[in-house]
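Two entries, shown back to back:
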Amino acid sequence: MRKLPTGSHGFTLLELLMAISIGSIVVTAVYGTFHTAIKAKTRAEETMAPLRSARYFFSAMKENLQLLREDAHVDNLDCETDHCSFPIRDDNAPMHVSFLLNSKKELIRERRQDETNSSNTIGEARQEILGRNVTQLHFEKQVKTNTSTDARTVLLLISVSFASNPVPMRYDYAIFIEKALLP
């Protein structure tokens, strides 16, 4: 057998086993922390998803109400308990937009071309999903009349509820339509 030269040192089996053991403990601790952080991030995203959907829905509703046609009558703002539709102006042609909850529990914005000065809609509807896992959508329209000008303004109250973990979430929003609608 050959002897190791003097002054050169190698690792003993015991030193290698100790290094591997310490390395395993460090890797396990880092993995545990990483796994916990990923679970917390996923839980936070699941909790925030309904809020993002509600904000997107309310924003879309507000933007479309700002496009309400000049000749809109207060009765053209058809907001019942489970849907809301109204005429809007568009560069290409008069449009009719509806917000509703479909059978798949999705918030939908539906746009279709309509005839001028008519609530009868024609053409194919373009649908956009604004939110998912919705358990309830509720609209309430309150009409106020200015007695001196006979102009009407509308307060639109909207409530949307989502099925989410760990508890269902409900968001409420109010839109005041300042534009005077024809009586």
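entry 2 starts here
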Amino acid sequence: MALFWFLITLVGLVIVQRWIHQHLHGVALLLTGHADMAIVLYALPLLPGVALHEISHALMATILRVRSAGLTIIPRRQPDGHVRLGAVRVEQVDVIRLSLIGLAPLMFGSFAVLLIIQYALGVSSLGDALRTHDPSIMFAALGGALRVPDAWLWLYLLFAISNAMMPSSSDRSTWPPVIVFIAIVIVVALLAGLGSTLSRLGPAIDDALAWLAAAFTITLIVDLPFVFVIWLLERMIGGLRGQRVFYYTPPEDAPLQRRKK
């Protein structure tokens, strides 16, 4: 149950994040009418999340004793056309450590989201939702969270962090061999009669996935009003200027084309 919930919310978060990145960039392009200025305006709302993303890479590299340098959160358009919101260079080492460094933004970002939800917004019923696997408990608790002092600041931070914590394509480049290696280890352990040992890890893994699924569920709920505002702004500004943005699927987020109706 926890694995299914985790996978559904993860896929949903990836889809919503991609939509937000594209259309936030589109709104910026309609507002400025200039490609370079649009990149800056598009990056500004996501700045706290981008900063955490890149710091997570650097921190994980330090923990794993991998040299890093050149941390930046200045957005730049790349030669292939996609927009890079930030970057940090790391030493080329084994794929295990590189995979963990690539995974760091999702790990640290999820932890930050959980902290904000549980403590800053006071959604104390998160634990109850995990035990009962009932998302409706979280929906009910969010109403009380809106009455927390500075609630909109925390909701904005949730938006910025959650929409910048997913690993980029370069972060994921070393994952396939690591996934294959883990699968081989599991198969060998089962063949060696260590299935009971692996089964003991099941409850801990289930709990971890449940916590992440809960965090992703609340993040998706928080994202919905931002999605509506971005969509409304794009429609209003495009209507006033007689223009619209045409999207296509680039290697990563966004080059966009602005055309008159």
